[in-house]
Amino acid sequence: MASRTRAHPENRPGDFFVDDTCIDCDLCRELAPTVFADAGGHSYVHAQPGDAGIRRLAARAALSCPTTSIGADLGVAEAVADFPLPVDGPVHFCGFSSRASFGARSWFVQRADGNWLIDAPRWVPSLAEAFARMGGIAKVFLTHQDDVADADRYAGRFAAEVIIHRRDRHAAPTATTILEGEDAATLAPGCVAIPVPGHTAGSCALLIDDTWLFTGDHLWWEPAEARLGASRMHCWHSWSEQIASMRRLLDHRFRAVLPGHGDWFASTPERMRAQLADLVERMQR
């Protein structure tokens, strides 16, 4: 729980604050950019929320913070019921990010043939109950070794299948379905696993209904530049393999990118392909 006695001095006076346990994961700045800002190494409150809508965004950021470094005098508990938060069609943002995954986002997708959890939040009983009300979880897809968090607990609660690539399996030893090689694999109707080694050896993306591409730490949207992005600095395995993996994504059609880190973005499939081709060219340079 955040401590006001440990609050950063940059915080603007008011209900919300960030304390010195912040790990600078950037999630609060993505969820409530008018409230939270970057102080260089940590976030802080640069403007107190001015209305109920912005306050709700700040409350969601406080609940999602992986280190519970955001405090508020009022209004956070009411936002618990917002999660999982609808994002785009059947896609929901789970909130309650885990320190074990450095604040990565996880996603919940409702489907008639069984719901999916993509990567995992920290274990929160109220979130598990919300998943249960929405039909439970049939499959847990782990994009890579970094964002496993409390996947085992959610999988155990719902007797769900857990999927990860063999090259990252050490992070999820109880996984029940192990992906192999670099060829795309259909896991259920409309659900395709696409190995994208680079960030880690076993990184994989999940494409649902040729629409939503869940990318882990492989690919994201950079709002300041209005373009898709990837990071050589945060490539733990092989940049050349990551370039090749990015190029293979050009063979697939999608209109939304939903990452673990960085902003999510939706457009037209044509614009996404053009953006992806531009990214591949920049990576090769």
Structure description:
The structure is a single chain. With 285 residues, the chain is α+β, with helices and mostly antiparallel strands. 21% of the residues lie in helices and 23% in strands. The protein has six helices and 19 strands. The protein has helices at residues 27-31, 52-64, 125-133, 151-158, 239-248, 269-284; strands spanning 17-18, 36-38, 43-45, 70-71, 85-88, 91-93, 107-109, 116-118, 139-141, 161-165, 177-179, 185-188, 191-195, 204-208, 212-216, 220-222, 227-229, 256-259, 265-266. Strands 5-6-7-8-9-10-11 form a seven-stranded mixed sheet, with helices on one face. It has a six-stranded mixed sheet with strand order 12-13-14-15-18-19, with no helix packed on it. Helix 4 links the parallel strand 9 (139-141) and strand 10 (161-165). Helix 5 packs antiparallel against helix 6. The longest helix is centred in the last third of the chain and has 16 residues, at 269-284. The model has no long low-confidence stretch (mean pLDDT 97).
